[in-house]
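Field reference: sequence -> structure
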Amino acid sequence: QVQLVESGGGLVQAGGSLRLSCSASGIIVSINAMGWYRQAPGKQRELVAVIRSGGITIYADSVKGRFTISRDNAKNTLSLQMNSLKPEDTAVYYCNADVQSVGRMNLWGKGTLVTVSS
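Structure field:
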């Protein structure tokens, strides 16, 4: 069984920074795309950033220039450096990965809460 576990959420003032991490564990042959999504109260889950196995990145317009996604393929980990945080970044952040294990599966972590105070 493959699991994704996020960490690094918390409370921060506007303008501050946080770093989120996601670790994949279990029987993993390879991981294709990995990404961060977020869901604010009363809103749908939305893409924050995605990084493909070759390193190509995609960002939501709302976070471009402030957030940086990275991954360590050897350790099966994913990170999101979030700078210049705004109150509208407040949400539960979820890690997502397209994993090749015994079979191919798309997995979600349980999420980590980020709260940005004004």
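Note: The chain is about 0% helix and 60% strand.
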